[in-house]
């Protein structure tokens, strides 16, 4: 006899998947922005009770130039349209947050909003890092990681020149087989020293603000 919140969520899910996702912008290097519905929860969550609430957790991967506000506005537009057609449909969109606790015990609510970033291969920092690695016999190839790192703060927010360099093999990252070879760690130790020495020698120009 109640209004089933899961049923009411189906049109929203369908439009996000079939209409919104295909309309996302594409970056020449990073590819297309994405969205993935990763969690569906309902309440009260009992077998014999019609759910009055349905929570959708979306993983939205943005590109440089997009923001949490612009991403939420896209979802809100669909919500407003569905609500105008169905008076029983009610929804809102927010950025999830998590309670983070520091080593001192200080706790605060932090938004789960990671800023996207990229850096040009022509940036002095990148060129200096490349030269440093090549000077110790390490072959350099350029690419982009598909997972998030703390560089969303250093480069995405602070616009400090940043690269990803690691002994880790990407196919194992964030999987049950997560591991790192010790011989690769030794190679990366030499590489990190070479990056530091060569970029430091370039002076302030190597640490110029990153633009996109």
Structure overview:
With 212 residues, this protein is α+β, with helices and mostly antiparallel strands. The chain folds into two domains: 5-99, Alpha-Beta Plaits; 124-207, Orthogonal Bundle (DNA polymerase, domain 1). It is built from five helices and six strands; from the N terminus they run H-E-E-E-E-H-E-E-H-H-H. It has helices at 5-20, 68-85, 124-135, 151-154, 182-200, and strands spanning 26-27, 31-32, 34-43, 53-61, 97-101, 107-111. Strands 1-2 form a two-stranded antiparallel sheet. It has a two-stranded antiparallel ribbon with strand order 3-4. Strand 1 (26-27) and strand 2 form a beta hairpin. The longest helix has 19 residues, at 182-200. The mean pLDDT is 95.
SSE topology:
Blueprint: H1 5-20, E1 26-27, E2 31-32, E3 34-43, E4 53-61, H2 68-85, E5 97-101, E6 107-111, H3 124-135, H4 151-154, H5 182-200
Helix pairs in contact: 1-2, 3-5
Number of domains: 2
Strand-residue proportion: 15-25%
Unreliable stretches (pLDDT < 50, length at least 5) are none
Structural class: alpha+beta
Shape: elongated
Overall CATH architecture of the largest domain: 2-Layer Sandwich
Total number of helical segments?
5
Overall pLDDT metric: 95
* H and E string: HEEEEHEEHHH
Rg result? 22 Å
Report the count of strand segments.
6
Quick tags:
6 strands; single chain; 212 residues; 5 helices; alpha+beta; DNA polymerase, domain 1; Alpha-Beta Plaits; two-stranded antiparallel ribbon; 2 domains
